[in-house]
Write a structure and sequence with these properties.
The structure holds two protein chains of two kinds. Chain A is mainly α. Chain A contains three helices and no strands. Chain B starts with 5 loop residues before the first helix and ends with a helix. The chains are: A mainly alpha, B mainly alpha.
Chain lengths: ~130, ~425
Amino acid sequence: MDFALSTYYPIFLFLAFLILFAIAGTIVPHLVGPQRITPVKQMPYESGMDPIGDARKRYDVKFYLIAILFLVFDVELLFLYPWAVSAYELFSEGALTALKEPIFWEVLVFLATLAVAYLYAWRRGVFKWR
Amino acid sequence: MIEYNLVASILTIAIVFGAVQGICAYSILAERKISAWLQERLGPNRVGPLGLLQPIADGVKFVLKEQVIPDHVDRVFYLVAPSIAVVTASIALCAVPVGRTTPAPVKPWTGTVAGEQQFLAQHGPEWKQTVEQYNDTYQFMIAPHLDIGFLFIFATGSLAAYAIVLGGWSSNNKYSLLGSLRASAQMISYEIPMGMAILGVVLFAGSLNPEKIIQDQADSGMWNIFYHPLACILFVTAVFAECNRLPFDLAETEQELVGGYHTEYSGMKFAFFFLGEYTHMVTTSLLVTLFFFGGWHFWGLNFDGFLGVVFKLIIFVTKMLAFIAFYMVIRWTIPRFRFDQLMGMAWKVFIPLTLINLLATLLVKHYGLPLLVLTPISLGLLLAAGWFTLVLPPEPQRSPIPFRPTSPTARTVMR
């Protein structure tokens, strides 16, 4: 199929509709509903206790490690999608048949390097959640 | 040239969005009813016959209630977060077929301009006719013939993490912050196995286009579940974690974190978070259906014309509703995991298993083995993983950490 930009029009149409829906849904209830502000209502809810300090505290570095690892694996996944689509559709017939074998081995090497990185992270104890 | 029909897409948007909102509202009622049956209670039965008007009453209440914005919140992000939740969850519906679809005609890829011209010279009129025929048929999805369909769905699906992070952070409440941290760590962890589990399916279909994947299954009469059972199990489990459904709802463990990231939200903004969650559920149920259960296809029910459109819509929606019911029954069947178990499962079990599964699929595809070989391989891998976890030495128990108040404030509280 030829690339057609018109494929993407409905997405933008839907997006515009959804944004309008969200804005209306956020604003209208404020106009309709009652407003009776009391000091207790304005307090953070911590199971009825008076809160000590605010929530801007330090938190565990584990979350940061997970985020970094996610980046590694997600980018790897992004490389694999185009390969999975084209490897056996595009390169199995016509002029590009010669590329089929090298691509197969390259993907194996790619997965192997990924496995090495994965094992390294495991050995260093990144997946240990304490 | 494939044409664009504005009226058709506006109509489809209206139908799909309205239907999904309705399904969301009534699946909340269904959730309450099913949980009541499983716990031998009655459930909502006061508003209307059998409580069937309950969702409408809930909706009216959400709009008419006082919208509390606490003093301590970061106002901009606090107001934006629920909208992000509902918009990102719904926009993924664009690329999901909900009824009868046909894949767009594909011009054989010749690699050169001369080759393409030669193709057009030889098959020009035929090609024009197929495209016209395609233009004349109605596709039951918002954005048909989107080549990057699944990438779009996964990309928008992962944007939902922003809603959770922003909602939890801007609430400035310790419960919300903890809940949002947990939820975002969980969501990004399970996104990888979810994306990787379907790589095998994509490899066999050679396309990211949902219409083509359904058509392939309909043509061969064999749903993907028969070839990729392990991928299906991994995908469904990862979807549970993505939607924060119960065995994985660590983000809003009521006993520890009150409500998780939406503790400080009330009224319509809370409803938006809820709506986003349920829309996500509907979208992922549709995804499971079209990836592994043949979409609108059912053996022996392959009609053409208007009857076909209606039948395929009914089949698709029935499969989706069956999945939503499955979600709800699981919710009241399996107890919640611990957070370290949850993260361990994503990183130590799911990712290696999906990688090995992908490798097996790749080998079968590359050496042109018969497809049915995949089924025993897939099930064998599942059994092997189960056996391996049994054999593996248990992790050493951690000793309980004694409670030592360190900060001066904590000490005053202790006294």
